[in-house]
Amino acid sequence: MNAEQILLVTSQGWSCLAQGELRPVAPWPDLKGSAIVVVDFADSQVGVQSSKGKPEYAAAQIEKAVRAEGAVEGPLKVFVHQQVRHTDSSQSLYTAVALEDWQQFETWASRQPDHCLIVPAVALLAGAGVGDKIRLLRIGQNLHAYAESDNRLHFATAAALGSDATDFVAPVRTVLAQLRASGWKGSSELRWGTALADDLAAEQDLVAQLAALGAADAKLLAHASYRAGTGKAVSAIPGLLDGLDARFLAASFLERLAWLSERYVMPLMALVAVVTLGLGGFALYAEQMIARERQGIDSLQGEMKQLRARVDKVTATQAASVEGGDLAFARQLGFAATHDPIRMLTTVRRAAGSTVRVQRVQLAKIDQSSKARFRVDGVVANGSSAELSRFLGELRAQGWQAESTAPSDGTAGAFAYFLRPLAPGGKS
Predict the structure, then answer these.
(1) Higher confidence at residue 175 or residue 301?
(2) What are phi and psi for residue 291, nearest 5 degrees?
(3) Nearest residue to 344 via CA among 424, 408, 418
(4) Which end of the chain has fewer surrounding CB within 10 Å, N or C?
């Protein structure tokens, strides 16, 4: 997962890793170029939670459990990083953040001119390559450890009081004991990474001293080197991001799709060329996007001819390699091609204001025979009907008629609506 710059946000401040250089930055900067922002949310709750029923309901159940414990005050935003399914339940690695904190990051990211996507720090542990070893990430004096075994997830955390090797002995032993207590039966060998350290030799020395003290058998993850003023620094974050799937981003599906379409060799023209073999629905959608975005560019005709020539060379085997989930998504994009999903997200966010918490905006169907429409799910703070009426009025003023449907969340004040565009003149 590549970006022009990586921002690390911890309780110690904001740091930017870009072009081989580490530099501190002021909070909430105006960015140039795309960015991945790794955030160690302060006052959040991180852990592994088992939930009954369908995995899709896990976030709501986790939110209720965290709220009952009182570890995070006020409304919450729950990020599910990794999930395994069992017969009638699921288990999730999650981060629960105060909604106000998340909205501050979300608003700041939306102001940036290029892609600015946020990754909760703990999500880095669940990327590819975990295997049967414990993966540990050190952020300052805090240790976060994660492991997988027998279709179960295990997580533990502890904090050191200092920065010497002896200060980390007890925390390392604590996380290992927590993992064992949760059912982890694998090797105690650690894959150790640090979010930010002065140099690799210092981190190697720390790991060696822990082994000598009998705390843990650890091997360092890949660390990237950076210039830091007159000194240097290392970080395991770039390597961990390389093994991270786009689903770990704290972003909507459409935002992740936009990111992938630019960053992973899926230019719009090539996508049209592949799907033209028979995926008529997706091809139509892509051509409409091209006509809208590239209208007036004389070179488009020449590019399209080249792409169509490449289509003739695509084999049936290559076409069959396109994932079924992507095809199903493409077939229902006709509505989204007419009504811009990114603009829709902005419309809903503005209508919500500070008193309505929007949980998701998605393309969905009322029934099998109907066309896909936007569906919005959310919760009104304090269950205020007046605020809900204001929210619906704002949507109508923006040209959208709301049709009530059953919410998936049982929280007081929860709602769900299908949205359809008003005809000119304000009639639905």
Answers:
(1) 175
(2) -60, -35
(3) 418
(4) C
